[in-house]
Amino acid sequence: xxxxxxxxxxxxxxxxxxxxxxxxxxxxxxxxxxxxxxxxxxxxxxxxxxxxxxxxxxxxxxxxxxxxxxxxxxxxxxxxxxxxxxxxxxxxxxxxxxxxxxxxxxxxxxxxxxxxxxxxxxxxxxxxxxxxxxxxxxxxxxxxxxxxxxxxxxxxxxxxxxxxxx
Length: 166
Known about the structure:
The protein is α+β, with helices and mostly antiparallel strands and 166 residues long. It has 2 domains: 7-50, no CATH class; 54-165, Endonuclease, Chain A, CATH 3.40.960. It is built from 6 helices and 7 strands; from the N terminus they run ααββαββββαβαα. The protein has helices spanning 7-20, 30-46, 68-80, 119-131, 141-145, 158-165, and strands at 54-58, 63-67, 90-91, 97-98, 102-104, 109-113, 136-139. The strands form 3 sheets. The protein has a 3-stranded mixed β-sheet. Strand 1 (54-58) and strand 2 (63-67) form a beta hairpin.
């Protein structure tokens, strides 16, 4: 979502732009960047008018907020197959936060559910993996369609999948 595609973000960008008028070239502190990153996450989670559907799914221990029907269906598939899962926020450079869709603690990897990937998604995931070497798996549209017959071990590593598709 960007200010060009979402009215709420456009308003927030306009307000911030007015506050920043005359401060072009000012470098933001790491602390300011951290606060803005957390504020953006909270904004998206609390504004239903952002065209994001949030669902609560219980992982056997607690209710977890997942984004969209695909994530909801994957969470239910994990539950049905007795696979322990959670959400785990990663701070990958001391400033930026990334929350992969699912953390699979017993297998030690993360799953990202993507129907399609923008260049921004590809760049972000590559940057994160370059910064911290996490085991990130991708569940794309093709695999999502086979979800009922899929084994979690069959999910490809991001690096293997990404190099095949770019």
